[in-house]
Amino acid sequence: MVDNMGEYKKLLKQLADDNSDKFINNSSIDHAAAIIEELFRRTNGVVRILSDHLNPDVYAQAGVKEASVEFLKKDKSKLQIIMQFKEKGREGMSNNGFLSHLKGFKDKITLFEASEELKKIKNHFMVSITDKNSYALRYETDIESHIATATFNVGDPGQKLCEYFDSNVISCEQISDEKWAN
Question: If you average pLDDT over every residue of the chain, what do you get?
């Protein structure tokens, strides 16, 4: 594991540039933010996120917010987020620094409250199709300590996560823009 954040970000960029199928571990909030930032930078199309409440320690970091805005400026970009709201209820959503930053793109963002079944899921994830037409993902195995694995070029696991998200989103309640984009 690379300890220096500069070296870690350089490694992420290199893996993404090379369309590498290597998995990289992350074990801190800053590592999580760096991976999410790079995933946004490399994505064309739809980003799918399953999260409890979009932890502001991760998602409200300047690099993540900047990369998400650049992503949403792309023609075919869409952001779909299923939120579990286990730690904090919906009331905290309007104060979420990440969502507040993106309210100008509300036509490209769809938020959902997780179904009761999805609220039981212990693993959060982010998955997308990259600018190199491969799946990229970050899969969190321990949400308390932000331990996760990520890759910028994976086939079947990325496709399965997309399919899982898409097949479950239909059982989730869509959250109106007024609840988060004011």
Answer: 90
